[in-house]
Queue: 4 jobs
Job 1
Amino acid sequence: MELLEVLKRLSSLDGPSGYEQEVIKYIKEEAEKIPNVKSEIDHLGNLIVRKEGPGKKIALFAHSDEIGFVLTKKEYGNYWRFSHFGGVDPKAVISQRLRIHTRDGSISTGVVGMLEPHLQTEEMKGKVPSFDELFIDIVEGGDKVSIGDLAVFSSEPFSLSDKYFTGKALDNRASCATLLYALALLNNFVPRSDAYFVFNIREEDGSPGAKAVAYKLKPDLAIILDVTHGDVQIPSSPKIETGKGPVLDIGPVISYEHFERLKKLAEKISVSYQVEPTGGVSYTDTDAIQITRGGILTLLISLPIRYMHTPYEVTNIRDIEETARLLSSFIAQGGE
Amino acid sequence: MNNLYLKELTELNGVSGYERRVREFIKEKIKDRVSGMEEDILGNLIAWKEGKNSKKLMLCAHMDEVGFMVSNIEEDGKLSIIPIGGIDPRTIIGKKVLIGEKEIPGVIGYKAIHLQRGEELTPPSFENIKIDIGVNKKTDAENKVKIGDFVAFATKSTVNGDWASGKALDDRGGCSILIDLIEDNIGLFYTTYFVFSTQEELGLRGAGVAAEKISPDFAVVVETTTSGDNPEFPEARRSTELGRGPAISPAHSGYVIDEKLFYWMLDNAKENNILYQIKRRTVGGTDARRIATTLAGIPSAVISIPSRYIHSPMSVLNLKDYENTLRLIATSLTKEVKDERTY
């Protein structure tokens, strides 16, 4: 599997929450290139890829959706108001080109404009416009858009260096790529678990996708893959860095016992890892999965990325490779 | 066909003081279509064509765009930058940039929204904005870039239907019009100098040097200007509106436009039924201010393509306005500037 190629495709595809099917379809194609797997898409649109084995049922989850925008009101001409879902910094939206998916399947393009500095008053300069004050200027296909059309960032992914890759939606397509890579690596082992690789929908709008799959599968262990903030010092927390390997989360939403097993295995196979304390809930699909159908044991593994929820998130390629190596080994050994 | 080069022109990198790429591109396009061409010490490109009358008219569009320069390479491999020209720091987060002669790609990242505590609506300062080129060490960064390298936005342009969007429309729009005027083989009244100037965004620094050399009888600056034409900005404070034709300036910061030239354009617009508008604000100066005070004084005028969101990585102009701007200048160039108004 060409990891960079897969990552590039995954970042290029558009899949705002609830509209992930292009992404799901592509992942299914890639998964089916891997021998000895069975895949299905459930009634909600979640993709479940099974790698059958004799042991415990382990489900791995990566959400396939991305943050997005929705057209809310036409002003005049090509001007529209818009809103967002998933946490978005208005500063990261100004002067961006957004790709709008219209009702007839065509793509329109709008730019989020900012008044020229020459005309700004001192008062205006002192504040970032909120989403209520931002507007989108639809310069291509302005006659095709309707209220409710969804939009995403249009940034094209690229390799920033031989170590780092950048693009939109690496939250959480970097994890999707990691799961695909782990699935490919799993063929090097005789697995001792019954593994389900789940590419679920709708994390950014509150986890209805992951919860449904967790309910249906009721796995013995669920491992959730998501992203976390890398290379930023968060007060009272260890500094998580890119390039230093997978981040193992610890806290009330994590099975302490499985966390210890995973740590031991990482040490045994020389995967360097980092530990991130998750106070309270994790704000990932883990929180919903843990309390599904009588309760499910959960592990959360995060890939550190920079500039989360901006058009150019940055991920470290080696972190993806090492996370996949750890995961495939863990599953092959039946979660031991 | 007109505006054939607009997309390519806007995608070239030519931050003030680093206009070489734009100059080389324009040179290549016009070299066989002008009577003569030269380049001066400041990097201005000056081309000319003979007219019926030996008096000289200078047309001027600036090649440079706003951008940044690498000011420091930090220990963690990130690049600090200083702005070149007037850039709003609220418009630069989450953008791809190209750095230096090798055009090394980088991104302008910012602290994730999840980690901001009440700073969401606070404008960032340039000191807190760093460029990420995918390295973690100063020495690794030094292998790719150096202090003094230019930093330009990497925005791709779209030119479709009625609209163009991209970076540097200010003033590649004007450059594109000058190229079209050269290619269109107009029956010029005056011997006309086509000046592609440098360092406009740093205080109109190139154009005066070119004017001094040419010593024209008149000058017309072709710009891409502001509008404020958006739902948030009060209509009464707009400077222009898109779709309403070229903006003819009566006066702007530091210079009241020469009356004869102002009416020369206005009358030609009226006589030929070309849609035009009078620019409604005086904020922002152009090369006209510098040219007007060069030598013993050169009567100057300004005509602009109205534009939105200029000086940001994503500006917009209307291609009908572009066409009308081109038509009005082309028509005017065939006519004499009258000493006395005939109205």
Job 2
Amino acid sequence: MSLSTQAFLIGARDTTPLIIAAAPFGLVYGALAINQGLSEALVMAMSIFVFAGASQFVTIALLASATAFPVILATVFIVNLRHMLYAASLMPQLAKVSAWLRVPMAFWLTDETFAIVSNRVSQAKDDKHFTAYYLGSAIFMYSSWLFFSWLGMTLGQKIPDIKSWGLDVAMVIAFVTIVVPLLKNYADWACALTAGVSAILTYHWPHQTGLLFSSFIAIAVGVALGYKNNTVITAIKTKEKTKNV
Amino acid sequence: MSDWLLIAGMAVLTFVPRYIPFGLAGKVTIPPLISQALSYVPIAVLTVIIVQTTLIRDGEVVLTVQNHHLIAAIVAFFVSLMTKHQFLAIGLGLVSFLMMKWLSFG
């Protein structure tokens, strides 16, 4: 077995725990989407061509509240902006990867694969098998997501009142467990608090425009407070450096 | 038909933010202010979604124990905060949701 095949398989293996965590969300996505009145082809097409759990959930939730398509698209874009940060932080590793291979790698970038790959990068900065490892993680994640979406869709049709079980609570709980570990300093907490308060004040705005408005305000608060925070930290670090010299 | 347009639009708007930095890798670096703003995106967007789907039920703000989504989210919040254990937080959140549902039927 070549070393890159090995890296591919290790990438898949390392992603397994995160796939187990994502499986219920694939199931719930499929069940909610089919009970939302989307055709089977549309439910699967979203998993095949969009492949972004949070965006797919948000879309189903927004469709349920009869949101206008442009607002859904704007929300999807905003929700996906975090991928831009993920991708940006992997730029040094990508510099050596061929241009055509970057296209599928970008398409397959998820929270899960990013978490696994960035962990490997932090252990070995100059990894010759980075691409193989990345693809192993990403392709396993992609095929699992398609399988669990399909399974959820099938079960959702057999159990029509699955919607009344409140399965959407799994999504909310998952989001909570994604956000909490991100709250590290007071700027993060202020950002979350602003988002929460603004969400309540603006929930009645038409077409969920309150979601976009609240997100922008919260990001601005985070940047304003975090910037000050960062400047202080940088200042302290510079001071320490000068001391050592 | 328009549903397919929605999915096509979603596919493009999901792919573009993922691809831009990959495409630019080795050519440019992101300004610090932009990358800092991007780092707050998950907290901001997900918190709005969490609050709007838990506190608001059927178009009204519901702050009672009848709001099972809210109870489950609060349980998940504290478990996650205290243990940093994602599986445990999701599990206990779901259990508390089912318990509340079961109790309200009894």
Job 3
Amino acid sequence: MTALTLRGLFARKLRAGLTGLAVLLGVMMISGTYVFTDTINGSFDKIFEEGAKGTDVVVKSKQAFTTDSGTLPPSFPESVLSKVDTARGVSEAAGGVIDYASIFLPSGKQVKTQGAPPLLYSTLPRRFNPLDYVRGKGPRTDKQVAIDKGTADKENISVGERIKLVGKAPAQTYVVSGIAKYGDVSSLGNATIAVVTLREGQRIADKPDQLDQISIGDEKGFTAEQVVRSVQRALPTSVEAKTGQQDASDQAQDVKDSLGFLNTALLAFAGIALFVGGFIIFNTFSITVAQRTKEFALLRTMGASARQVLGSVVLEALLIGVIASAVGVAAGVLAAKGISALFNAFGIGLPEQGTVIETRTIVIAATVGVLVTLVSGLAPARRATRVPPLAAMREDAARQSGRAGHRREIVAAVALVLGFAIVLWGLFGASGSTQVLFTLAVGAIMVFIAVALLSARLVGPLASGVGRPLEGLRGMEGQLARENAMRNPSRTATTAAALMIGLALVTFVTVLAAGIKASVTETLDKSFTAELVLQNTQGSFNPIPEAAGTAVSRVRGVEVVSPLKSTNAKILTRDAGRTVLSGVEPSTITRVWNFDFKNGEAGTLSRLGNSQVVLNDQYATGKKLKVGNTIQVETSTSAKPDFTIVGTVDDKSGFFGKGIVTSSVMRTKFAETQNFFELIRTAPGANVAAVQASVDKVLETEYPTVESKNQTQFKNQIESQINQLLALLYALLSLSIIVSLFGIVNTLVLSITERTRELGMMRAIGTSRRQVRRIVRYESVITALIGGVLGLVVGLVLASLTTVALENEGFKLSIPVLQLVAFLVLAGIAGVLAAIPPARRASRIDVLEALAYE
Amino acid sequence: MTANELWRTYGTGEARVDALAGVSVAFGRGKFTSIMGPSGSGKSTLLHCLAGLEAPTSGTVAIDDVEITQLGDRELTELRRTKIGFVFQAFNLLPVLTAEENITLPLRIAGRPIDQQWLDQLVGTVGLAERRTHLPSELSGGQQQRVAIARALITRPAVVFADEPTGNLDSKASAEVLGLLRHAVDDFGQTAVMVTHDPDAAGTGDRLVVLRDGKVEHDGDVSEANLATLLSSR
């Protein structure tokens, strides 16, 4: 029996290969995701390890939690260094500044870091220095800078050249004194490193007489732990000592935590691809079991038990699963490079240091791949056991009716209702984003399966709907294609359903993105009364120095410059948890932004005190917080100030987080010394374009990391950010669409094998090869369009439900008709592409052999 | 239609088989020719070569004075559309098309207009006027084969090839099908060539060609062939 299975598998190489590919791609994505994230995590481990080399103990400010905005821990007075120096067990201690500063080439071009930090370090004594100079040496004077080798190579910078550094202080020119490698780390991703003297670092970072870190070397005979304890006694409460190792692993863990979502998201896309692959395996096995009815019956007449028949099909599935998974796991290493390239292309540069392949990667990816194959192959395998021995004698045994039973439809209908119910519960009832996403996923999977089961019923009308126009265009070929598609509705339905899943998700994200764009535009039109915005040249998620706003306020024609700060905070009252707060300048904010007060009025904000907060109305309602209540907030610097709620606003822009406090309290209590935006109102009658030109002039020379945007530019920027995210999602979803195309290829190839005799006859009575190809191609297009229509409908329904659920967050339903039509056209083109191999196969059928075919 | 010195050789050396070893026959216009011969005599190979489904190793076949053995796929397709009609043992109707759609399929494949009068006449002749819209699965074997004959005749081909047309039918249905072919030859002046191993079927023709071991053993009027010849060629 086993030998028979093996031989059969080998004889049907193409089918086995295509089926295997359906699993392979999903497994590849899983393995690729793990390799990718492990490699990144490994690189960060390495980077922080290198940084801690030679440093036994580190002193830093305490940070209650790390902020998403990448805010560094606050600095502490330089005087702490002398106390540390005299502590027991300390042989050497050196203070350093760690901040951000962008590098500008002599041409004026900024070295963009694509989301990675442009690091600024001050020089350290040899013992603590992680840098190895490959050319030149470290900076000796305040006019010198050393940079990392990666940046020097990429930007062609050599020793002796002049570059500009821009941190919080105005731009300054430096001579490159040396180029260094960061230990053994070969790539820092897109991060840049600039090293200057301590004094110059303090100036660039606007941290006069302040330090960010003290590196300590132990005296002989002391353990790091002992030194930590003795140093800690000398420190103020806001500053803490840790071992260098501890610090390195803490930092690496922080990075891992903040990148954790990446792993989950990528695995989700791998899951989708595998889910689609499951459909294809199920379909392929269903078809082949039907086609091999005679073979199974013959085996049964010769005494094979039902168990043996089951075993042979399951074994086939197992073999395909194992081989495909093995190849998939290996291909994952390449996929990891692909994912990395994809993220790079979308402006997310992450460091890569070697390739990390953990055992866990192999085990998980392979297990999932084999399981998906087995589970998907099980139902068809069980059907094989029900073949009666008598079927061997029947002429038309293979032509089993594909009509769906009533029971199946009832199950599908129940699953559909239940699926939507779960989706609705997820949207309206569930709390916490993990729970919401999980319920949504479960609900969506049920909906997909239910629609796939039900769609056998819909294939007839849908095939007519999409096939009739073809028929009008291409009479005979069109009609035959349509009739062929309807011949076995459940087969066509399952094939189309695989494509439906991918298209439904594409439609879903497209409609949601259109909704977000529409709502952002509307909110900005309504509330945004500033004419200009200042933001970081590397995007609005990076801060800008406060001094830039001050400089711009002196420009003629500028009437109001109002800063906007943003930070993470933990609301301790009612355990409300982590959230985002904004900091504004009360005297000016209402001149640049039109708030929609639910409680209070404009004066509430313009008279906002340092211990008062205006909450987002939704948030306040959700957390049952009312005007007059006092909330306690924990900042990232571990301060715990109280704020009295004085008003609530309805803010759908998301600019102001969940609550608004003064920018001065955010500076003092939250250590947010930088702004995210400056909102600018021009003087009445001033020419906005002319003012913007003058503003740009000031920024160009002194603050080149800051740029101005007018209202239109700002809106376009937000739109293009959404589009970019959308493009990334499309790229990731395309994998499952590719898998579903293999499904179409597979189904058609199998159907053609079944119809060999018919095709032979057609050829014998004068059908040309081209006509045969057309018939196959149109059937493929019809199948793809059925998948496309179903996908659009399901995607639209899911997106509409989500929009309704998120209406309060400012979501609007906006249906991008043109794009949806484009998706249908693309589905049709995909159908044409998927038809290429089967059509070629069909047209090459040998007439004589086909007529003798059994 | 003529075939001249047809050879068809399979394999080489020891395994060499001459399916056709120098067959020359001519088929008169408007005549019904039966080809008989024991299994392996080369009768199917001859039919395939005559119909352009298979290229002979050497020799020529001409239909309406066109030499077909050297034609490419495109020309052969065109030939099948215009000059040749087929009736198969296994009916080979498209299950998704109705009886009438199956009959007109060759015209639609060729993109030619349907001669409604001719269609009606054919449907009437094969006795399926009441079953035009039935699917093949709703027809009996005999009815299906009658549809196939109408399909072969719809293009008014130069020649209709029938490969064991009664092989899957009972005697009553066989008689109907043979009667139809006879009728086509007598009343429409159709040329027909039928391969069969049923002596009764062969007797329906005007002329009988008997093959043995790839060679023509007998070629003459059916009436000349004695019963012994027919029986021995089964």
Job 4
Amino acid sequence: MIRLLCLFIAVLAFGAVRFPMEHNLLEDHRALHFQGVDFNLDLREQVGQGAFVAALSGFRSVVADGLFIQAHVAWENTEWGRVLLLFRQATALQPRSVLFWDMAAWHMAWNASAAALNDRTIPRQALRLKAAREYYEIGKDFLERGIRYNPDKPQLYESLARLYQQKYNDHLHASEMFAKAAQLPEAPSYDKRFAAYELSYSEGHEKEAYAELRRLYDMGEREHLPTLLARLRALEEKLGIPAGERIPPGEH
Amino acid sequence: MIASGRRIFTIAGNALTDLTRQRVFYFGLIVAPLLIASSIFMARFSFQQEFQILKDISLGVMSLLTSLLAIAGTARLVPQDIEDRTVYTILAKPVARFEYLLGKLLGVLVLLALSTALLSALFFCILYVREQSILSETARQMSAAPRDQLVAALNGVKASAFNGDLVPAICTIYFKGALLAALTLFISSFATSQLFTIVVMVFVYFIGHLQGVAREYWLHTQGSGWLAQIFLAIVALVFPDLQAFNLIDDAVAGTVIPLALFGKTALLGLFYTTVYSAFAVVSFYGREL
């Protein structure tokens, strides 16, 4: 008995020694946005007890995948409410998966909104439009939350930019998002161009857009792409740039 | 008595042979590859989704099997030897108790290393086969596209399939298995039955994974009264924080695992395994045989 008591005290002492190590590791995890899952009662109610315990026992990703597959099936059956619910659960369990946030936003802002616009059971066009706009907002919310968890990944900024561009017709915000994506290390080279293109469509920002497009143009032949040339020419006309400062007319 | 590597290795060899004869090993050997291979039937998804599901399922299976082998395999070693009276024969010879225990633990650690290596090889093979098939499909579909677009698409497939951070994630599965094996050995060094050890370890496994989350939740939402703090402190001090070894979820999501973080996790795993083994030795020395 005394030996067991001594062992218990030793275990406690061991805990006291390792506690700073674990705390240090936990701080590292937090700094890197690891394990940023908020396990709360809402999540417990959403995923059910079995899945919740499995998620807590180190099988979070597997449970999230199961939910993702269910969401995919719900999408095939066009059960939009269920798609939303399942994607909320999947993204809550695996917030570091860019794919989940991106797919959730795409299903909501593009597919569910299109379904709402074509839903003939809603009698008035205004109501259908309102329903579609609500889905855009849900899609936007998915992307914004995804970015909070994955600030280092350009894909979600790009998706949010496309959402602003295609669904809200908001080129200024689309440009800002492409520009943010372009600053990240993993960003593809076209992000900086897309940021400039979108800025060129924003009313009142033509001068900035022209300066940016011209800067890209001056970087060399590699940047002389058809869209860039077309946008530059359009802005040259709009801003009344003197002939001597315009780009050569022969380039396509 | 001076420790003899030869004696420890002999006991480890015997323990390994004994472990490979257990049903749990065969169960794992059949079920785990089947589960990993089944994830290949995800072709209805895009390649990014398919790779993510394949990695999640494979690493989840590896984690489960490693933990299962570590607990079920180790829980049986000492009680079985006592029941068969083999332990008396061994300890009657010039074999120290710590050599006996270290030999047993070494046997389990080798088994865990072998099973992890085997499952990793299978996982990487499946990943490679799928990657090659998607690469050739993509190349065929984009044969008319400009070269830089084709290269970008192929690089996208490659980036989704294999990333180097999967290797440290798999290593942390092994560290967790080693920790669980050492802790199981400690429990079995004073437990009277194999069943007791397994039941205790199942609880430890769940509490170990839950304690970090529970601690955060309690301290932030229930207030932090002194009674709650003492209780949580005892739980945190007694039970290992197994979530610290969970790098799989983030590695699969494509997050880079810094070498420093991996090093700290490995060090923590080694520290746990060493200390629990030392506890097991102390406890086993006090046991009447």
